[in-house]
Structures are given as C-alpha cells and as structure tokens.
C-alpha cells in the first residue's frame, strides 16, 4: 500500500509499505478521509519532538473495514467506520470509571501521548482495535466523519467539563480549526452572546460565518469584551495555544466565570492572584483527548444536523499530494486540511 512515512523530522517520504495484517480483536480499515491535525504538522516539522521513527502520522480517520481479526465484535468487512485514535485496555482503574484517555495501557494510532504508537492514517490502510471503531451513519460524509475526534474534544471540553448552559455568554480565544468546532458546539448548546477572539482577520470572518455573534482582534481584547458584555463572560475557553491566550483568559474573569485551559500543550507558566481567585469563585477546567462517550456525542451532533464539521474544511489533498498538504498547513489562510488517500 502507499503511505507517507516520516523517516525523520522534515523527511516525509511517499513509499510502498506492507499491508497491515489484523491480529486478535484488530481491524484493518481502508482509509477514505483523514484530518490533518496541527500535532501531525508539528511532528513532521520537528516542532514536536516526542516522535519515534519511522512512523506514519494521521489520527483523524474514517474509512471502510477491509479485514477483521479473530474475536472482533460488532464489525465486519465493508462496514463504514469512524476511528478513535486512542486505544485503551478497558480494565485498569481509569478505564473502569470512564476515563479511558487516562488508560495505563493506552496506545494511539498516528498521534502522540502514549508511548505505544501505532502507524496512522496517512496511508491507504490502517490497523487498529475494534474498541476504537464506531459505525458511521450513512448521512455523514467520510470527510465530516474524519473530524469526529476533534469535534468530540470540543464537546468534551465545552459541554461535559465546563458545563455550558443555555443562554451563557461565551468567549472562545483562538478560532482555528478546533476553536471553530468549540464555537459551533457552544452555538448548538444554546450560547447567548458568543465572542470569538483571534489576531487573524481570516479566522474572525470564519467565526462570524459559523455562529459567533462578535469577532474581535486580540489587541485591546478585554476592553472590547466588556463593552459587549458589561457583566463579563459566563464561560471563557482558550483554544489558541500560546501562553498569552491563557493569560488573557485569566484576565477576562469576573465572579463566577468558568474557564477552560483547552488549547495550550506547552509547559509554560501563568500567575494567579490567590485572593482574587478565591473571591471570584470561578471554576477552572481543562480538557484533552477524547473518550467513547465524547465520540458518541460528536456523532450524534453530526447525525442530528446540529453541527456540520465539514464547514471548517478549507483544503483537500490526495495522499500523493501529501507534501502540498504539509505546505498548506504552514500557511495562515487555511482552516482544516483533509487528506483523501
């Protein structure tokens, strides 16, 4: 099969590699669509260093079951499926209470986090376990289905953890791909006024098209937010990444504000005034990864028509054009990039 093999940082090679063969409880999926995540780009460019070579990136796939191993339950050849990248054992203490993304024996297909990393979906076929598969509803396109994992993360952070309520005034800092999905989930959940903050005019225009009531630049953001929301925001979610975005989120709080450290993954620091934080009586949450519950909720959002993640796709490339996809990922005026093997 054809695959984009990452041999080293900045050394992505298209080559023929052996087809994966399913073992016990394993499934091989013919990849129809795969989202290009920023973490994939960072691995390819050497920005993210926790990579073991050679590897095949791509952890947001959908496709068709092409082969099943012994003991596979619920899936057969020809089934259209959505793949969760994070595998889990199901029996450790974390899995038993539903925190499968904390699993002590986890693996990931094409992503990062666990030490056990399997080849991902920048290839014509990918192997995974049956517990990582979900049946794709016929009404959902393969491209939209490939965005189930990031959409599930947006649902998990915004709804399950930060517990958005109908009518909440919400601020989303950073409206790239994942920020837009958070914004769309907030809109579907009944947000009142919904403010997008981003330094990019391109990103702000996208946010307004996808449900934001206001979109403002990062410069003077606190003053602008409080002009729109004199009483302050009910919920602030940081989906940007830079530590400056986290500091802005802290600065936007008023009494009772819920705030979610969602986008940053680097080990940088920010300060809190202990007494002020005490008397503001807000609640801080953070969210990473996904779970089967979040995946199911994301599928329901798409199937019901409440959220259509296909709206955030700006570019599509074949696997043979993977290097063009990498180049596009480095450009400012792009949104979600899809690879169609």
Kindly report the name of the CATH homologous superfamily of the largest domain.
Answer: Medium-chain alcohol dehydrogenases, catalytic domain
Anisotropy-based shape: globular
What name is given to the CATH topology of the largest domain?
Answer: Quinone Oxidoreductase, Chain A, domain 1
Please count the beta strands (DSSP E, at least 2 residues each). 18
Q: Indicate the proportion of strand residues.
A: 25-35%
Regarding quaternary structure, what we see is single chain
The CA-CA distance between the termini, in Å, is 10 Å
The CATH architecture of the largest domain can be named as Alpha-Beta Complex
Low-pLDDT residue spans: none
How many helices? Answer: 11
Q: How helical, in percent, are the residues?
A: 25-40%
Q: What is the name of the CATH class of the largest domain? A: Alpha Beta
**Rg, Å, rounded:** 20 Å
Number of structurally distinct domains: 2
Instruction: Give the class from helix and strand content and strand pairing.
Output: alpha/beta
Order of helices and strands: EEEHEEEHEEEEHHEHEHEHEHEHEHEHE
Throw out a few tags for this protein.
Quinone Oxidoreductase, Chain A, domain 1; 6-stranded parallel sheet; 11 helices; globular; 341 residues; alpha/beta
Element layout with pairings:
Blueprint: E1 2-8, E2 11-16, E3 26-36, H1 38-45, E4 60-68, E5 80-83, E6 86-87, H2 93-96, E7 107-109, E8 116-118, E9 125-129, E10 133-135, H3 142-145, H4 148-161, E11 170-173, H5 177-188, E12 194-197, H6 201-209, E13 214-216, H7 221-228, E14 235-238, H8 243-251, E15 258-261, H9 274-280, E16 283-286, H10 292-303, E17 313-318, H11 322-329, E18 336-340
Parallel strand pairs: 7-8, 11-12, 11-14, 12-13, 14-15, 15-16, 17-18
Antiparallel strand pairs: 1-2, 3-4, 3-9, 3-18, 4-5, 5-10, 6-7
Helix pairs in contact: 4-5, 4-10
